């Protein structure tokens, strides 16, 4: 039975009388309060979130009615009606895919601490699982062979660092989709994700081919004559890891979208399944089947493919969490076209430059550690793997800045309130993180190796490691804010200057014969300088926090 107030030849005006709203016949078509508009006069909220005690449905003022996902059958039977010329009321069986002005999301001017924690905590889990894959490889392989443990250092440097450059997909997708959502442009968000999926798959395939070809000569150059025995196992590891690179790239796109939609739960679940599977396969292939470092590579590749598959399945289904809960993203799997792909890549040029600079520095430092001795290579690899593992705190807070800041850009007071809240949280957590991470490394070196020589060098790095963890967590907050504000050119330039000073430092310290601590002193200097430079940038008049206009739409 159709409710009485829908029996009219003009459902728009009748509905407005029920809700106590009026029309504006003089306004152009599509303006608030007119037929064809999704907004009511005097109410800035999307009509999709306006309900009455009579209609528990998605309402649009063009006369259409789309039910909420999960509405019970009795309620549908009571209020559903076939589409007619008189009523033009339709009930669909799928959640709505809303257009530019109809995204039902929280538009509050303030972000509560509880809402922030609900995002940051699972996001930290998302970021901690990725380094867990390499850390599990380190723990399992390290208890089996000292040579293979040393080989993991240059092998993961080549494989993971090159892949890390392509995490610009996550940064770009998170930034663009966050802006689209803040402007209620869900179709634009769908376009961003659709184009990025095909591009990610193509980039993954290309990187796999490149690594297959260059792995042996590059690893020989990194290891040098001192550690030549590491080249063969390291090459085998890299070539097998390339099997999962397409899954890694596609997963980065999916992860970027879900984080932008304020839904870290979905990627957390996907990566958790992958992490558990990686541990099981590591124990099975490395120990039970005796495959050693090759088994570890296969386990990690399989985990990357599994997590990407889970994210893809969820991407084409209604969202279960976040600000877009219940909606379906208009995503299409398409092959990337050359010109749009080049425009996307060129717009990410500064971000790519920033990531390349970071990879170059870490790669150079790893090659310096590898060239010292196999023992130094093994110790550096374990400590650096722990560094990547504990980076999840800073990464999670940085992603929170990228997801939440776009809605506050143009409101300096609100933007600074968010920034200061996040920064205080980052410093507080960083203090405990530094103490906990340092204590863990001090007490548990033999968890990763049976070699007393490697364990001794690891313990020697504890003070540097703790300080690095503190400054990393504090500095990632500032970097996330600048990325959210698309201040990527400044970030790229600051990275270049920072790394230049770091290279001068490591050269001088190596000349003094400091050894492996010289490498970690340089990493500490890089993190501290990044915090100082980014905070100074945020104080400037033209920074994203002081901006008085919103960010431009990125959905085209």
Topology:
Layout (H helix, E strand, L loop, with lengths): L10 H9 L37 E3 L5 E3 L5 H7 L33 H30 L3 H20 L2 H15 L3 H38 L7 H11 L3 H16 L4 H24 L4 H23 L22 H10 L1 H24 L1 H17 L1 H13 L7 H32 L8 H9 L1 H23 L3 H24 L4 H24 L17
Antiparallel strand pairs: 1-2
Helix pairs in contact: 3-4, 3-9, 3-10, 3-13, 3-14, 4-6, 4-7, 4-12, 4-13, 5-6, 5-8, 5-14, 6-7, 6-8, 7-10, 8-10, 9-10, 12-13, 12-18, 12-19, 13-16, 14-15, 14-17, 15-17, 17-19, 18-19
Structure commentary:
The chain has 556 residues and is an all-alpha fold. The chain folds into two domains: 4-79, no CATH class; 113-546, no CATH class. 66% of the residues lie in helices and 1% in strands. The chain has a two-stranded antiparallel ribbon. Strand 1 (57-59) and strand 2 (65-67) form a beta hairpin. The model is unreliable at 1-109 (pLDDT under 50).
Please tally the β strands and state the result: 2
Q: Specify the biggest β-sheet.
A: 2 strands, antiparallel
Poorly predicted parts: 1-109
Total domain count: 2
Query: CA-to-CA gap between the ends?
Result: 43 Å
How helical, in percent, are the residues? 55-70%
Oligomer: single chain
**Overall radius of gyration:** 26 Å
Overall mean pLDDT: 75
Portion of residues in beta strands equals under 5%
Question: How do the strands line up in the largest sheet?
Answer: 1-2
* Anisotropy-based shape: globular
């Amino acid at each position: 039975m159709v409710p009485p107030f829908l029996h009219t030849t003009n459902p728009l005006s009748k509905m407005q009388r029920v809700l106590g709203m009026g029309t504006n016949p003089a306004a152009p078509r599509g303006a608030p309060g007119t037929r064809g508009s999704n907004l009511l006069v005097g109410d800035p909220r999307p009509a999709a979130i306006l309900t009455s005690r009579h209609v528990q449905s998605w309402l649009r003022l063009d006369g259409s009615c789309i039910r909420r996902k999960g509405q019970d059958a009795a309620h549908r039977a009571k209020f559903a009606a076939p589409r007619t010329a008189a009523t033009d009321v339709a009930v669909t069986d799928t959640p709505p895919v809303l257009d530019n002005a109809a995204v039902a999301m929280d538009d509050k001017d303030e972000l509560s601490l509880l809402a922030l924690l609900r995002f940051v905590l699972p996001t930290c889990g998302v970021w901690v699982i990725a380094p867990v894959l390499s850390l599990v490889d380190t723990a399992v392989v390290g208890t089996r062979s000292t040579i293979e443990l040393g080989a993991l250092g240059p092998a993961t440097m080549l494989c993971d660092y090159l892949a890390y450059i392509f995490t610009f997909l996550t940064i770009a997708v998170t930034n663009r989709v966050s802006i689209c959502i803040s402007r209620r442009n869900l179709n634009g968000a769908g376009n961003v994700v659709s184009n990025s999926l095909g591009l990610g798959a193509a980039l993954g395939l290309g990187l796999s081919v490149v690594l297959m070809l260059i792995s042996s000569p590059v690893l020989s150059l990194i290891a040098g004559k001192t550690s030549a025995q590491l080249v063969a196992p390291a090459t085998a590891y890299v070539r097998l890891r390339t099997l999962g690179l397409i899954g890694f790239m596609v997963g980065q796109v999916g992860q970027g979208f879900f984080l932008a939609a304020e839904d870290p739960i979905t990627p957390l679940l996907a990566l958790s399944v992958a992490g558990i599977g990686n541990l099981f396969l590591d124990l099975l292939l490395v120990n039970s089947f005796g495959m050693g470092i090759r088994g570890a590579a296969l386990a990690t590749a399989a985990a990357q493919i599994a997590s990407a598959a889970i994210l893809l399945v969820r991407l084409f289904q209604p969202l279960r969490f976040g600000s877009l809960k219940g909606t379906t993203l208009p995503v299409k799997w398409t092959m990337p076209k050359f010109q749009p792909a080049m425009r996307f890549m060129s717009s990410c040029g500064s971000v790519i430059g920033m990531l390349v600079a970071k990879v170059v520095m870490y790669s150079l430092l790893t090659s310096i550690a590898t060239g010292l001795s196999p023992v130094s290579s093994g110790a550096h690899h374990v400590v650096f793997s722990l560094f990547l593992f504990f980076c999840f705190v800073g990464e999670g807070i940085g992603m929170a800045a990228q997801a939440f800041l776009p809605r506050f850009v143009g409101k300096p007071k609100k933007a600074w309130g968010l920034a200061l809240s996040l920064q205080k949280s980052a410093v507080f957590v960083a203090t405990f993180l530094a103490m906990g991470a340092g204590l863990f490394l001090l007490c548990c070196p033999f968890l990763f190796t049976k070699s007393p020589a490697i364990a001794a060098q690891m313990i020697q790095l504890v003070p540097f490691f703790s300080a690095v963890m503190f400054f990393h967590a504090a500095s990632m907050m500032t970097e996330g804010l600048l990325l959210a504000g698309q201040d990527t050119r400044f970030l790229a330039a600051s990275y270049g200057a920072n790394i230049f000073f770091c290279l001068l430092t490591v050269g001088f310290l190596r000349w003094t014969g400091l050894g492996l601590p010289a490498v970690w002193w340089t990493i500490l200097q890089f993190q501290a300088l990044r915090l100082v430079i980014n905070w100074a940038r945020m104080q400037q008049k033209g920074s994203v926090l002081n901006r008085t206009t919103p960010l431009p739409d990125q959905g085209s």
